[in-house]
Every structure is written in structure tokens, then in C-alpha cells.
Amino acid sequence: MGSKYQQSVRGCLPLWILMLELILLLVFFFFTSYGTYSKDQKELLGTYRGFQDVVIIAALGLGFLNTSLRRHCWSSVAFNLFLLALGVQLTVLLDGFLNHIFFGKININLTSIQRATMSATSVLISAGAILGKVNLVQLVFMTVTEVTAFSTTRMVAKRFLEADNHVTMMYIHVFAAYFGLTVGCCLPRPLPTGGKEKDQTATSPSLFAMLGTLFLWMFWPSFNSALLTIPDERKKAVFNTYYALAVSAVTAISMSALIHPKGKISMTHIHNAVLAGGVAVGAPCYLIHSPWLAMVLGFIAGLTSIGGAKVLLICLQRKPDIFGICSIYDTYGVHYTFGLPGLLGGIANIVLKALQVKWTETSMFSLKLEIVEITFCD
Amino acid sequence: MGSKYQQSVRGCLPLWILMLELILLLVFFFFTSYGTYSKDQKELLGTYRGFQDVVIIAALGLGFLNTSLRRHCWSSVAFNLFLLALGVQLTVLLDGFLNHIFFGKININLTSIQRATMSATSVLISAGAILGKVNLVQLVFMTVTEVTAFSTTRMVAKRFLEADNHVTMMYIHVFAAYFGLTVGCCLPRPLPTGGKEKDQTATSPSLFAMLGTLFLWMFWPSFNSALLTIPDERKKAVFNTYYALAVSAVTAISMSALIHPKGKISMTHIHNAVLAGGVAVGAPCYLIHSPWLAMVLGFIAGLTSIGGAKVLLICLQRKPDIFGICSIYDTYGVHYTFGLPGLLGGIANIVLKALQVKWTETSMFSLKLEIVEITFCD
Amino acid sequence: MGSKYQQSVRGCLPLWILMLELILLLVFFFFTSYGTYSKDQKELLGTYRGFQDVVIIAALGLGFLNTSLRRHCWSSVAFNLFLLALGVQLTVLLDGFLNHIFFGKININLTSIQRATMSATSVLISAGAILGKVNLVQLVFMTVTEVTAFSTTRMVAKRFLEADNHVTMMYIHVFAAYFGLTVGCCLPRPLPTGGKEKDQTATSPSLFAMLGTLFLWMFWPSFNSALLTIPDERKKAVFNTYYALAVSAVTAISMSALIHPKGKISMTHIHNAVLAGGVAVGAPCYLIHSPWLAMVLGFIAGLTSIGGAKVLLICLQRKPDIFGICSIYDTYGVHYTFGLPGLLGGIANIVLKALQVKWTETSMFSLKLEIVEITFCD
Fold it and tell me: Where would I find the Ammonium transporter AmtB-like domain in this sequence (chains A, B, C) (predicted)?
């Protein structure tokens, strides 16, 4: 049932939340309306399915992903639903204000709710790093801060760097993981009483976590392809994500057995590393032209997620005085699930973009040469 | 594994069910056929998805919603599947006979199965109020009675009150909740032996209940929009349901912390109150023109669901002799999850309808005035 | 956490898997490419949903179906994901090589990944019969063998018997069940130490198994209709599967209560028998013209699945010396869930096909007669 709150929280929490909810209600009353619809029924259907897949990822997948520790499991699921419901309302408003300033009322449609759900996912990922250290009020504060920061970042990237919706969204993993870790560093360590018992992994909660992992694994192609509009790019995103996930699942499970002294498969490893491929392929998924490249990314992501976790753990345990100052508190290994693979995906995206530009330049150059030749020949 | 049945049930049950199943088979043999299809493949696809969402709500959502008590959890899921499978077969026939009497064979298509699944949901909701008091034969008897009553009510409302499919279906929550409570009042109280142990809430079953809650939460927009045919109304239904659910989740979780003496979030409250918004917005969802109204409904639904539960509980505990005669037995709080929010939705529907009629009349009146003016001017 | 592996497995396993994965990567690099797309976005959407349903059945349904035994539950889910991820990669390549030899690169599209996922399901079904007896390396070996065997069988049936995609796929249940049982017979019996504890059924794992069962129950219509391309056949497949599943659920639950000495519903029976109807109707689902026939199939499937299990068990226990030689090891009752109902479906398919041919012949004959008459009349 989560950590014990101070007595003061009892009075403070509902006042905070109900006030916030009433403010949101007022803002919605004055500034929003449902848009007029030009799209036909069939397009609604398609968007609705994509939207629902994102909701499944956020509410169910990320909710149950963080249930493997015995004493946090219930609060993890409940907090997740709370943060999602609050975060979506906030993000719809923020996105509306940031993108359509001075244009009267904010139009609410399925696409804007879908994007808001995806942005709110950042809070859910960050929460995985600090669960057990924070109470609900602190989480609400973090939600407001993180959602504002992420929406602003996206707006800036879109306006000044001319990045598209897909790319600005796909850096969510890196952003959320390191935001969560930073918050975790700033917060005081939780009291060590009963800490051992709290961190115990049990079979039944672990199966719930596996349920969350599986839902994420199955619906990740929908997440990666949600904001792509060109059919061809969308198909590539789906295929590449599927292949990367398949390879990273195989790699993670065999790596987990390699690392364990008795060759057993560790539950925690699977929860973390199975998804690494999907995260890594997130940003560049629409650029990859053949399955082997996605598979290579999935392979490396699986290796780094488990290998990196093991190496970092050993380093930290050996030299606690050197690294002591930046001792990372990470309840559910958000760093290995979302942080490292997200970085890998970012690098892959930049390399692929650069290669694409080079290829285009080369072909432009050869085209020019041809034109020049043709002109000369003429 | 349920309660212990009397010895006689062992012989009685399968005879009953197998006989019923054979009768159903014969009726299907003589009176039904698959219709000829005029719709194209793409429309099938859309209907199939909507149908599947309803099945997920019925089989998975309501099946797992009622698993939070340790000793009922298994029987709850198994009974739920049984009642659903039986109820759908009965309802398809009943709907067919009531709506197409004297027209030869009943045409079975996806829409009719979808509606039958939604009607059968009433039995699943009612069962939540009486689980632990009843054996399977009693449940079968209740299924036959309730499905007949609900289908007849719908038919009467459609024929004589000219209500549409959506509205007649959306009163299912109120109907089912109070049907279940009435049945619970009529049944003798279960033996008190081991009652305490039976009613214990445990973490692992509670997570299963949370799984059911989440599935209901995620797929509720599909349920509320399933029977609307005009695209614009459908979109409004989806948006309004989503917003009402989001607000009721936030409200319910903060209210739960307010009521608990230590500021903790109660599992039972969440299972009950998170869905209240979706239930409340069910009937009027296609009439609401802007998100704030849906959010207000969700807010009130969340408050009444938890607050009402608390107040009623205190009243009943204080004056047991006065209320003793109508002491309500409600295993899983069906009254607070479906009853009260359903009533709220009914009132909202009537008010909105009346306002709409008034608005239309006003605009008609001003239109007439204008016409008169124009005529005079001429 | 699965059975204890020998020390040697620790070094052997990851080498094997990583080598296999690298070989797969190389083959993908040289022999595959994403096809050029002629289909429009809407068709992608439809195929993507069908594909996702199959993934849900494979990863979630079959993963959680086999979690009812306390000590296998975790390894069952993890192994399932591993086998699925590996099996799909293998099958995509195998299907490509077997069907498009000498045509350059293999085109990968959603349909081929969907078929590969369905074929890989055979490994997951077989694994249910031998879990607890095998380690991961043996499972990988079985995957390679079974996937090759099944793909070859399908190719042979398609080329030489001119069977269509649907029929060749629907024999997967029979193939997988008896493949698994054969492998189980060949493997040495597991050490009996702690066997009792391992085979214990507990409530919480059983609810997970019920979750898997429910997902299979809900998405089975998608599986049975996935490879049918004519809209009319597809609709029939969906309807028939739904009715067969509904009837088999009712029959299985009442039969389970009939067999139990105290009239209780056995969890294991439900996990096995509820799906029997869907399996039985798999092959002939597109041929059945009215619901009653599907319901009869579901009824018989439910009866044989539970009745057959009971009778066989009694026989085996009474005369262990006679049947000792072929004593079947079947961890999760794959024989009753997939084997027997699959055989029933096969017989039904043959009978219906024969009747259809006869009907066609009769009508052809009467048509000829009519033509002759007309000719004579002229």
C-alpha cells in the first residue's frame, strides 16, 4: 500500500488535487471545445484504434511493468492510473496553448488526446525510478513539472529545429529516464527500515510485471508508428519495431542465463531488457530500409541493457566512495529499460539521417554529373 | 472454487444446464440462420472491432473486477464466463423473437451478437452483488429471468416510448445494479462460518481486480459509443467518456486518501469509483457538446461513488435496527459502482434532453418571430 | 524459475542462441527485404489488427495458459516469449525459402509475419506438453525441428494436395499436440524429487492461467478467420467460432461440476475444455452455414475434452502395466485442449467437404437433368 505518509499529507493531498482538478475544469470550460469534424467515420475508426493502443501501453503496460517488488505493486498500479489521468488533462491544455496561442479556443480531437497520452507516458516512466521514495503530492508536483518541461521541449524542437512530431516524441524515453533519475538523486533516501522486505521479488507480482511487459511488447509497434502519417513509413516502423523486439527478447533471455551463476533466467532482467529493442528502434524506425538493421539494433540494445546493468552494478559496488556522490537510486531499472536503449536509438537516428543526407547528396551529385555529361554530349 | 453446494446440486446442475443447452440448440436449429450480407469487408472490420471491445469488457473486465475477495476470486471469473456464454445465447434468441415476431427465421449478424453481449452484461453486473450467496443453479435461474426482463424492457421502451437503441441500453447499469440488490435481499443470508476469512482482501487478488478495472477503464469509450450510428455522436461519446473517466479516476483516488484515516488509498474504493465517471456519462454522452460538462459529471460521479458509500455505511452501522429490514447485501459494491452513477447519468440525460428541446423550441420561436417580422416587413 | 539446469548448460546456452541469432541476422541481411507496397493505408490497418490479434493469442494467451502449476508459472511465460520471438524469425525465413525458391530476395510483409506467428504457435502448444522436463537448449532444438517440419508439411500440402492456406494452418492444433506428446515420450522422465510440490495448483497462478484462457477465448475468432480472404467465409468463421466457444464454455463448466464428487468446478478442466469448441471448429468454420452446427461441434468438443480426459485417466491408473509403455507425460493437458478437439475438427471438415461435394454433384446432376429435359423439350 505504498510508503507511509506523514499525517499532514492527509489534509494536504485532497485539497491540492481537488483544487487542481477544479482549476483544470475551469480552464477547459473557458478555453476548449470539440472541433468540427471533416474526417469520415472510417478514419475515426483507424485513429481510435491507434489511440486505444497507446492507452493500453500507458495504463496497462507501464502500470503493471512496475509491480515486481512485493510491497510497491499495488501503489504502483494505482499511482500510474492517477498520474496518467492527471497528466493527459494537463498535456492536452499545455499542447493546445503552446501550439495555438492567440487562436481562440483549443480544438480537442482524437489526435490531440493521443499525443497527450503519449506525452503523459513520460511521467509514468519517470515514476518507475522513484517509486517507494515519494508520496502522492510529490508525484503530482513532478507530473506538473515534467509535463510542462516535455511539452515545452517538444514545442521548441518543432519550431526552431524543425523536427517533426515523431522524432520529438521518440526522445521521450531518454528524457523521462534521466528526469526520473535526477528527481531520484534530489530526493532524500527512504528510511532503511523494512527496506529488504520491500525490495523482495515474488513470483505472483513478478507475473503481473510480466503481464505489463508482454502488453508493452505486443503494442510497442503501435506506439512507434502512432505519429507517422505516410503509410510507407508507418509500415516500416511497425516491421522494424517488431523485428527489433523479437531479437532483443531472444538476446535478453540468453544473456540473462549467461550472467546468472546457475544459468537461470532472472525475472528482473526480462522485465527490463525485453523492451530495449523497441525503445532503441523508436526514433530511427521510419528510416530503416531492411529488417537486418532493426535486428542489429535490437541485438545491441538487448546486450547493452543487460550487460550495462551488470557492469554498472559491479562498478558501483566496488568503489562506493568515488561514485557515492552520484549513487543512483532506480527502483525499477528505468535506466536500463529506457535510458540506455533510448540513447542508442538517438545515436542510430543521427547516423542514419547523416547517411541519408550523404546518400541524397551523392545521388544529387551523380545526377548533376549526369546532367552535365548529357549537356556536354548535347 | 466458490461456496460448498448441497449434495443435490451435483446431480441437478449438469442436467439443468445440458437440458437448457440442448433446448437452445434446437431453437437455434429451427429458428435462426446467418443473414445474407450486403455490407462490405471494411465495415465488417469496424463492427468486428467494436464487438470485440464489448466482449473484452464483458469477459475480462467484469470477470476480473470481482476478484478482490480472496475466496471468491476463482469462482467469480469462472461464473462470469459461464453466465456470459449462456446469456449471449439466450439474448440473441430473445431479441430476435421480441423484435421480429412473425417474420420467419431470426437473422444473426455481428450487430445482433454485439447487442446480445451488451445485454448479457446486465447479468454479470448483478452477479457482483450476490456472489458468495448463490450456487450455479440459482445463477442460471437469475440469468434466464434477468435477460428476459431486460430484453422485454428494452423492447417496450423502443416500441412505446420510441427510445433509441443507445438510450435503452445505457440504463443497463441502473437496471442491473438494482436487480442484483433485489435478488440479494430475497436470498437468505449466507452462513456466517468463515465469513471473515472469505471477505478478506489480499494484494494479489486485488491486483487482478485492478486488471479488470483497467480493462473496463480503457474500453469503456467503446461500450458507450457502440450503439451510436451517427459518426459525430460517436466521436462525442468517445471523447466525453474518456474525459469523464479521467476526472473520476483523479477524484476517486484523492477522495479515497481523504477518507482513509492514514491518508492511504483504499483498493476497494478504486475498484468501485474509478469507473463511476464512465457509467454516469453513459446515457447522455452523445448529447454533451464540450469536455467540461463531461468532466463535471465525472467529478460528481467520483465524489458520490466514494462519499455515498461512506455515508451509507456509517448510517447503516449506526442504526441497524431501523435499516435492518432493508439491510443491503452487496458483495462487491455494485450499488456504488453502477447504481448511483447510473442514476446520476439518467438525471443528466433527462436534464440535457429537456434543455435541448427548450433550446430547439427557443430557436424555433425566434425563427418564427423572424419569419413573422420578415413577413411584416414585406 | 524452471528446472535446475546442468552446469554445462550455462556456457552452452548463450553460445548456441547468440550464434543462432547471428546466423539468422546474416540470412536476413542477404536474403530479405521489405517489399514494395501497393496496398493502401486502410488495408494495412485491417491486416495490422488481425496480425496483432494473433500476436496476443501467441504471446499472452498461450503464455499465460500454462501458468497454473505453481513452480512452472514463471518459466512458462518467459520460455513462451523466447520461443515465439525465435520461432517467428525462423518461420519467416523458412516460409520464404520454401515458397519462393529461386526468386531472389524474400519479400517481408505483414501477411508473411502473421503467418509466421501462427506457425510459431505450434511450438508454443507443444511446449505445454513438456514443460518441466526440458531446458532451454532442448526447447530451442525442438523449435528448429518443429518449425521446419510444420512449414514443410504446409508447403507439401499446398503444392501437392492443393489445400489452401486456411486448412493447412488449422491442422496446427493436432500437429502441435501430438508433436509435443511424442517429444514428451522420447525425453526421460524428470526426477521425482519435489514432484508433488511442483505439480500443485494454486489460486493465484490459476487466475493467471484463466487470464490466458480468457484471452484465447476472446481472440480465437480472429485466429480462425485470419487466413480467410473471402469476406463471406470470414464472417462465417467469426460467427461459428464464437458460437462454438460459447457452447463449449457452458458445456465444459457444467461437465466439470458433474464429474467432481462435490459438484465443484475444477480449474484445470476449465483451462482445458473452454477452448475445445474453438479448436474443433477451426478447420471447418468457413463451411458451416448455420449456428446450430457450430454449436453441436462445440457441445461435442466440450464433452470429449472433459469426458475423454476423465476416462483416459481412469484407464491409465487402473492398468498401469499395460499402458505403461506408452504412459503419456502431458504437463498441461495439451492432448485434451488441442489434440482431441483438433481431431474432431478434422473429421468434421472432411465430412462437410464430402457433403458439399455430394451436394454440388447432386445439384450438378439435377442441373444436367434439367438441361437434358430442356434440350428434349426443345
Answer: 20-363
DSSP letter (8 states) at residue A285: T
CA distance to partner chain A, nearest, from residue B339 (Å): 23
The domains located in chain A, with CATH, are 1-190+200-227 (1.10.3430.10), 230-378 (1.10.3430.10)
The pLDDT, as a whole number, for residue B234 is 85
Q: C-chain residues within 8 Å CB-CB of B147?
A: none
Q: For the packed helices B231-259 and B203-225, what is the interaxial angle rounded to 10 degrees?
A: 150
Interface contact flag, A253 C63, Cβ < 8 Å: no
A94, A235, B127 from A50: Cα distances, Å: 22, 14, 33
* CB atoms inside a 10 Å sphere around CB C138: 14
User: Using the beta-carbon criterion (under 8 Å), do B2 and C262 form an inter-chain contact?
Assistant: no
Q: Report phi then psi at C106, rounded to 5.
A: -80, 130
What distance in Å separates the CA atoms of residue B282 and residue B225, rounded to the nearest whole number?
Answer: 9
Q: Give pLDDT, residue A163.
A: 81
- The whole-angstrom separation of Cα C163 and Cα C346 is 13
Position B15 pLDDT exceeds 60: yes
The amino acid sitting at B375 is T
Taking CB atoms and an 8 Å cutoff, what residues of chain A touch C32?
Answer: 290-292
Give CA separation, A6 vs A9, B99, B209, in Å.
6, 60, 28
Contact residues, chain C, for A218 at CB < 8 Å = 52, 55-56, 59-60
CA distance C46 to chain B (A): 7
DSSP letters of A302-344?
A: HHHHHHHHHHHHHHHHH-HHHHGGGPPP-TT-HIIIIIHHHHH
Q: Are C118 and C147 in contact (CB under 8 A)?
A: no
| Residue A345: CB atoms within 10 Å | 27
User: Which of B313, B354, B77 is closest to B212 using CA atoms?
Assistant: B77
Helix (H) or strand (E) holding A91: helix A73-99
Low-confidence ranges of chain A (pLDDT < 70): 1-13, 35-45, 70-71, 100-103, 189-203, 313, 315-329, 363-378
Select the residue of A28, A55, A78 nearest B295 (Cβ to Cβ): A28
The DSSP output letter for B326 is G
A23: nearest CA partner in chain B: B292
d(CA C67, CA B349) in angstroms, rounded, equals 46
Q: What is the bridge-based pairing of β-strands C32-34 and C106-108?
A: parallel
Chains A, B: CB contacts within 8 A come to 146
Q: Which of A14, A28, A56 sits opposite B257 (nearest CB)?
A: A14
Contacts of C181 (CB under 8 A, 6+ apart): C129, C328, C330, C334, C335, C339
> Which of B358, B361, B362, B346 is CA-nearest to residue B163?
B346
Answer yes or no: are the C-beta atoms of C365 and C99 closer than 8 Å: no
Short-list C344, C335, C59, CA closest to C177: C335
Residue matched to cell numbers 469477459:
B59
Nearest by CB to residue C218, choosing from B33, B49, B59, is: B59
Q: How far is CA B266 from the centre of its chain?
A: 23
Amino acid at A4: K
Chains that touch A (3 or more CB pairs under 8 A): B, C
Q: Do C41 and A264 touch (CB under 8 A)?
A: no
Cα→Cα distances C131→A85, C284, C306, Å = 41, 31, 22
Inter-chain CB proximity A262 and C10 less than 8 Å: yes
First vs last Cα of chain A: how many Å apart?
82
Q: Residues A293-309: pLDDT tens digits?
A: 999 999 999 988 888 77
**Closest residue to A86, CB basis, from B243, B245, B250:** B250
Q: How many A-C residue pairs are in contact by the CB < 8 A criterion? A: 145
Give the C-alpha separation, B176 to B144, whole Å.
Answer: 13
What's the predicted TM-score (pTM) here?
0.87
